[in-house]
Amino acid sequence: MNILVINCGSSSLKYQLIDMEQEKLLAKGNYEKIGEGESFLTHKRPGKENVQVNKQVHNHAEAIEIVLQQLVDEENGVVKNLDEIDAIGHRIVHGGNMTESKLITPEVIEKLVELIPIDPLHNPGAVATIKACKVLMKDTPMVAVFDTAFHQTIPEERYVYPIPYKYYEEDGIRKYGFHGTSFRFVADETAKLLNKSKEEMKMIICHLGQGASICAVENGKSVDTSMGFTSVGGIMMVARSGDLDPSVVTYIMEKDGKTASEMDLMLNKNSGAYGVSGISDDFREIEVAAFDEHNPRAELAIKMYSYEIAQYVARYCVALQGMDTLVFTGGIGEHQRRVRNQICQNLKFLGVEIDSEANQKCYGSEGIISKSDSKVIVAVVPTNEELMIARDTKNLAFGA
Questions:
Q1: Is 147 a catalytic site residue?
Q2: Does the first or last residue of the chain, that is N or C, have fewer Cβ atoms within 10 Å of its Cβ?
């Protein structure tokens, strides 16, 4: 059984084709700069050279058509025809208050369209891709897997904002949280790694990538998370601001005459560690500048980043009334060992004791990086959102 997983960004389309009999990756790729000019597709197959297709596309519908062509291409493809793709799983960033993955119906598509004003970056591309797939593969079942669904177990007092209540009732303005598919996968894998039942664990998971968020997981369920109404809230990220005093936003808008869209661009693309350091929106470059070149602004950015993450971890000890496991995942969480160490140094008062040698060895792989006598187990667990989406798709389309 082959399942195609599609993950639409604002100007990108990532995909993986997975053989679910063995949970084996057949092909993956990324269409970048969609609608921006000079767009291109990088198509990858295990054990073979990458294929790059330089073809400008104006929207996600055009992009998915070229992706499907590559999957069945006589030279570069991995299946003979589209009939060998049994189902499609779509990662949906914003699913509103939907609590679980769903088979895609006209009603689900209508709901995603309704949510576009809340998430104008991701949902339009996802909807366009779903509609295109319905035309190109009309008899193939499709499933929507929502990043927000995992966080629907958060108690009301933790997701309602302290603004006039009518905005929650009438407009749905509340904390939704994101990265839920990643948190769900990592919670399961962490329990396996430690040979424990997740229902007995109090874990805090740090998904640290270009976007980053923290999640408190108790009994396998989300009880609080750092991202909020949108994915710009919470901790400081690589290029996103995270939480701010709201008056900072209105002050800058008035002072510089910025429009709402210009301000939104600044907070999403030019803030965070990039905004503070002024170096790059590639975290690896900021880290090198801080630790190896001792650039003062880069050092400041890394200190701020590490402090805010530790601060949120401590905060979620309140939500969990304790913590037994701290987990790092995502591109930064899995690879940036010096940052992991700095975060953990800020958490010594909670009984976190990092094993320097184990931390150094753990690079992009699963492992425990805390000392044997640490009161809190610290682990690195690589995420695999695509596999989680594929599993949900298989179960909903064909039964468990």
A1: yes
A2: C
User: Within the chain, which residue ranges are assigned CATH 3.30.420.40?
Assistant: 2-146, 194-380
Q: How far apart are CA 23 and CA 165, in angstroms?
A: 46
Sheet holding 325-329, edge to edge: 221-225, 212-218, 202-208, 325-329, 377-380, 367-368
Report pLDDT digits (tens) over 286-314: 999 999 999 999 999 999 999 999 999 99
pTM: 0.93
Helix, strand and coil content of the chain, in percent to the nearest 5, comes to 45, 20, 40
Secondary structure E strands in 221-332 = 221-225, 325-329
Q: Which two tokens stand for residue 267?
A: 């907070």
Report how far apart, in Å, the C-alpha atoms of 399 and of each of 92, 102, 120, 226, 391 are: 21, 13, 33, 33, 10
Q: Token pair of 268, please? A: 């999403």
Give the pLDDT score at 313: 98
**Is residue 44 classed as helix, strand or coil in its secondary structure?**
strand
Q: Hunting for tokens 């000079």 — which residue is that?
A: 38
Beta bridge partners of 218: 202, 221
**CATH match for 194-380 among 3.30.420.40, 3.40.630.30, 3.30.2350.10, 3.40.920.10:** 3.30.420.40
CA-based nearest residue to 369, from 400, 329, 330, 341? 341
